TrEMBL record, chain A:
SMART domains: CO_deh_flav_C (SM01092). It comes from the Bacteria. This is Carbon monoxide dehydrogenase. It comes from Prauserella muralis. Pfam families: CO_deh_flav_C, FAD_binding_5. The keyword Oxidoreductase applies. SUPFAM superfamilies: CO dehydrogenase flavoprotein C-terminal domain-like, FAD-binding/transporter-associated domain-like. Keywords: FAD, Flavoprotein, Oxidoreductase. The lineage of its organism: Bacteria, Bacillati, Actinomycetota, Actinomycetes, Pseudonocardiales. Signal peptide: none annotated. One of its GO terms (molecular function) is oxidoreductase activity.
From TrEMBL, chain B:
Pfam families: Ald_Xan_dh_C (PF01315), MoCoBD_1 (PF02738), MoCoBD_2 (PF20256). InterPro entries: Ald_Oxase/Xan_DH_a/b (IPR000674), Ald_Oxase/Xan_DH_a/b_sf (IPR036856), Ald_Oxase/xanthine_DH-like (IPR016208), AldOxase/xan_DH_MoCoBD1 (IPR008274), AldOxase/xan_DH_MoCoBD2 (IPR046867), AldOxase/xan_DH_Mopterin-bd_sf (IPR037165). SMART domains: Ald_Xan_dh_C. It comes from Prauserella muralis. This is Carbon monoxide dehydrogenase. Keywords: Molybdenum, Oxidoreductase. One of its GO terms (molecular function) is oxidoreductase activity.
Amino acid sequence: MIPAQFRYQRANTVEEALAALAEHGDEAKPLAGGHSLLPLMKLRLAAPEVLVDLAPLDELRFVRLDGDTVRIGALTRHHDLHGDGVLREHAPLLAHVAGEVGDQQVRHRGTIGGSLVHADPAADLAAALLACDGTLVARGPRGEREIPATEFFLGPFTTPLEPDELLTEVRLPRQTGRGWAFEKFTRRAIDWAIVGVAVCGQSVGLVNMAGTPLRASATERALASGAPIAEAAELAAEGTSPVDEPHATAEYRRHLARVLTARALEAAAA
Amino acid sequence: MSIVGTRVVRVEDGTLITKGGTYVEDLRHEALTGAVHATFVRSPVAHARITSIDTSEALQAPGVVAVYTAADIDLAPGQAGPVAQPWLADGVVRYVGEPVALVLTEQRYQLADAAELVDVDYDPLEAVASIDAALADETLLFPDLGSNVAQVTGGEFDEHAFDDCEVVVTETIVNQRVAPAPLEVRGAALAWGEDDRLTVWLSTQNPQLARTIIALGLGVGEERIRIVTPDVGGGFGAKIGSDPEPVVLGWAARRAGRPVRWTETRSENLTAMTHGRAQQNTVTIGGRRDGTVLAFRLEVVQDAGAYPRTLFLPTLTELMASGVYHFPRVETSSKGVVTNTTPISAYRGAGRPEATAAIERAMDLFAAEIGRDPAEVRRTNFIRPEEFPYQTPTGASYDTGEYAAALDRVLEAGGYHQLRAEQARRREAGEPVALGLGLAAYVEITGGDGGGESGRVDVNPDGSLTAYTGASPHGQGLGTSLMMLLSDQFGIPLERITVRHGDTDEVPTGVGTFGSRSLQLGGSAVRRAAETVIERARALAAEMLEASPDDVVLDTDRGAWHVRGAPSSATVGWADVAARAGDGELSEDVWYDEGTPTFPFGAHLAVVEVDTLTGKVVLRRIVALDDAGPVVNPLAFEGQRHGGLGQGAAQALLEVMSYDSDGNPTTATLADYSFISATELPDFELLHMATPTTRNALGVKGIGEAATIGSTPAVHNAVVDALAHLGVRHLDMPATPLRVWQAINDARKAD
């Protein structure tokens, strides 16, 4: 449980972090809360040569309302998101989901940016952001770019971020008037979701139903055309490709997606 | 008022929950100065020939002191049941996690880098990854043995055993493999002294037994080994005695000429520490439609893992097969088989939970088949109070029991009949969340090993007390319980009593802690020693008070002797008596071997809700009565029950150590291995009953494992009960959401 040797570099500004990433390319990994990266390093499944510690970057810890857009600094911790008044008022789904991630220890260290760039298909926040029509802002040597959440998750643990780019901000439209719900199905409270469903209005984001978080498009189309919830939810597993595991078969996950989608839509509509 | 029976906060806790205990890894000891650090290179494959081991690159790595393999070790191999177990894999590996090489480095952080460089070539063999594969005997783990079956008992069944039964039910029940996963993983620190003695600081439940095992392994006399246990962070049976690793480390410390420190990693612990349970039990139960059971048969197959070192487990299961019931005919058999998996050893209950799970599932299957309430069927068949001592058909001699009373108390406290009504209402209404009620009535055996225990009591010159026990508490709070007993006898306050254990130079004889034996045997030993010391003190006090020994009494409120009937006249305190005593006169060291096994019992009711759409089970209530005789410290007693209930429920609902068909463990991290947490558990509803025994000096029985034994089948039965109306008759543990959902689907299809 001791990682392979690495060099440690502390970034005091975003510019310093970007310079370090530019210098070391894909030999470097930015370190945020460390709750995905450090376990991988300890198991020696990841062995970056340089760790660029983002801890000092308080400039990336914020939640604010900017017109109709909620803006969240990438280093904001789950615990802080969960308790944030602005987020609770204007993006309650995301605030709620942040409180469902992992356990207390994880929520006090883990960050929203760290979770999103890790792109684990079982991550709660990614599916919630998808359901909220969120976008992700990255900065790099070629400037800043904004990537819709629908284009951000390319595959398991894969995003369009270049090794020299840093996720700095997450944006989502105010959730005004849209009902919401999150159904997370686990064996134990601290487990990753076997399946999760995040509903924001008539948008449905699915956790762990494919190699990436994804939207339940067939369900959304059915809802848009006026289908009742029960009928629309029956389509929740269409277009998904859940992983088949001994403790949760693909067939079981598809079944759960339908049941949980119905429950989440009912709750959101209530 | 006596302190015994009152809720005393454990004296151990202050340190443990503030600055923390001192575990092997925390030791700072002069003898360990300059110690090298050790790690084992372990097999990543289940079954293979080792074609070569190249250590040259590892030897060049920074800080590497030595790399040893089987070729270096000049010790006779150890023995695991009928087969030899090499200290490091010798030519063949037989499970993922088997030690293959030992790496020593100057600094601990250098270990993982160096270990990665040990280049082992494996030529894979077919893996025997299940009981069925083992029984097929197509691939043999030990060709010299001629079979994968390492032990067979019984099996000559009466073909007419069930002839007079109106109903016969049979089922094969898997009691799945689980990982002990103690908070403190295994560790040892070892140093040879200039006197050519080896001191081993070891995380163990039994220092004296560890001394024997390590001495035997190293081929030296026991007098040359000293074991010291620092704080031990749990063992659950998997730290009984010593594993093979400390022998290798003791050998390496000598070969390298340096003290050695070793702490395994958590990942390592999950495959390299022994596992528990791992039985497949076929029950056949028959009787009359009025609920009377006439015959019961239990066929045990024990997966012993790769090295069958604990083959007493299946026979202990056989011994306890008929549980709390008076059955006219009971037949048992067992087979112990080897597989390419982590070796199996004791785990909280060790043989008895498996017996209880089998009979308690069988009782529910029988009740369901004849359409009677499982509580009523149990009551019909209980051994009655007047039948004790009761000799079971399998050879156990139960001491005392009030089985029907225990069950009735639980049913009443739980509101069983109201719960049944609510269950019927939900079924009638077709509600998706079903209610399930599960019962378990159990009896188990504590102090069943037949050994004794040591106990020594010294009155110190200042009137304080020091006791030494061969028991080896490692989280149970036994020290506090012994102090309470002594305080009660001597009238000396707790803060002036010290209990010592765990250093074999200080406590040379002892058996240690397992099988819930420590209070009934260790406590009785201390009790006997104390009685002798008090009688000697009486004589001294009588001299000082110028009275006959028969006329002086010990006032245990004040800790002072006085003449009978004159408590306010002259008194003599413990320091006074000690001052008058000759050297060693107020010290007594006893070996208590008069204790015989006791049989704690109880009844549990579990209430679960099952979401029939998703298969998710939520444990809503556990109502438990665990009768282990008189209670010394109710706080510690309840703590043992809480832990036991949680651990037992965890087996029913969550925990399983799984292997794929190639023998690769698939639940080898705590992200995949689902231990239980407070979030998954209800507040426990504990009922109290105390039926004494006459089988030891204290009249007590053990409580360390009882609640684990009852809760697993109670929760398991509750899940099946919740699904009964859907046609589900049985499903194996753990009752994961997927399994529950599949069971519902299968029943629907069969309908």
